[in-house]
Structure formats: structure tokens, C-alpha cells
Amino acid sequence: MGKKKPRSRRSFTPEFKAEIVELCQRGDRSVGQVAKDCDLTETAVRDWVKQAEVDAGEREELAALRRENRQLREDVEVLNRATAFFAKEPR
User: Fold this and answer.
1) For the residues 3-9, what does the mean pLDDT come to?
2) Is residue 8 part of a domain?
3) Is 74 helix (H, G, I), strand (E, B) or coil?
4) pLDDT (0 to 100) of residue 91
5) Which of 7, 40, 62, 63 has its CA 20 to 30 A from that of 52?
6) Quick check: is 50 in a domain?
7) Domains identified in the chain, total number
8) Residue 2 lies in a domain
9) Are 20 and 51 in contact (CB under 8 A)?
10) How many CA atoms lie within 13 A of 24 on its CB side?
11) H/E element, 19
12) What's the pLDDT at 1?
């Protein structure tokens, strides 16, 4: 019978995975076609694409939080200066 030999576990560099994800996200080929063309399992490629989407979302969230943090620090600095100014005013 046509039993397939199990594949040995391979490891791939982050750069290689990023290239594969880019091919999938370009949209001219399906995930299955990219996997087949590159001799990869479709499951692995789908997992890489899903992880890339999660990572991108986390980077966007982190950037937004850093912007908010910077704005809040500026606001606190303005309030500290205003407090110091009004504390000096004679009553």
C-alpha cells in the first residue's frame, strides 16, 4: 500500500517563515498552493500566517500604548507645572 514515510522534523529561520507569510498575504496564491510549492505542510504555513497576524496586532497595540503613555506623561508634567505656579501665588 502507499504508506507515506513520516517527515522528519525540520526547523526554519524566522526570515524564511516571514517570506512564506509574505507570499501568502500577497494573495496571488492560496496558503495550500504556497505550502505545496515550497514543500511545506499546509498546517505549518497556516500557523505561521496566524502567528504573524497576532504579532502584527501586538506591535500595533504596543505602539498605541507607547503614544498614550507619552501623552499622559506630558499631561502630568503640565499639571505639575501648573500646581507649582499656583502654589507660589500669594493669596
Assistant:
1) 77
2) no
3) helix
4) 66
5) 7
6) yes
7) 1
8) no
9) no
10) 26
11) helix 14-26
12) 57
Please give the pLDDT value at position 11.
94
Q: What is the pTM of this model?
A: 0.72
DSSP state of 9: P
pLDDT at 2: 67
pLDDT in tens, 44-60: 999 999 999 999 999 99
Q: Cα dihedral angle (56, 10, 46, 61), rounded to 10 degrees?
A: -10
Give the Cα separation of 14 and 55 in Å (integer): 13
pLDDT of residue 76: 98
Contacts of residue 20, defined as CB under 8 A and 6 or more positions apart, other chains included, come to: 34, 38, 40, 45, 48
What secondary structure does DSSP assign to 44-63, as a single string? HHHHHHHHHHHHHHHHHHHH
Q: Are 34 and 24 in contact (CB under 8 A)?
A: yes
Q: How far apart are CA 57 and CA 65, in angstroms?
A: 12
